[in-house]
Design a protein that fits this description.
4 helices; 0% strand; single chain; mainly alpha
């Protein structure tokens, strides 16, 4: 072992060729010159975020349903020149669902 080395321990791990290329690309973009320096900084200071988008996906689904209903209502209004209360009630019910999902999603955030 080289007595002039400050770091005595070595860490090894395996990657796929695709992962290796991704690491190389990130090193190039980061401005670090040395791979070891970059990997050490990421291991010490890096962050990994796990996002659960299931609420967001449900919200998008509900909003899309509302958009479809609005288009159907607009078509009926243009055709008949009348607004039907049942259509408005259905739209209000779906909007209430979206607001519930939003409130639930916001309250679950840390």
């Amino acid at each position: 072992m080289n007595v002039n080395r400050r770091r005595e321990l070595q860490i090894n791990f395996r990657v796929t060729p695709a992962e290796r290329q991704m690491i190389k690309d990130r090193i190039m973009k980061s401005g670090y010159r040395e791979e070891g320096e970059y990997l050490r900084r990421m291991a010490i200071d890096g962050y990994i975020f796990h996002l659960d988008n299931s609420d967001l996906k449900q919200l998008i689904y509900e909003i899309n349903k509302i958009g479809t209903n609005i288009n159907q209502i607009a078509h009926k209004i243009n055709k008949d020149n009348e607004i039907y209360q049942t259509d408005m009630d259905e739209l209000k019910e779906k909007m209430d669902r979206v607001w519930r999902l939003l409130r639930q999603s916001i309250l679950q955030q840390p």
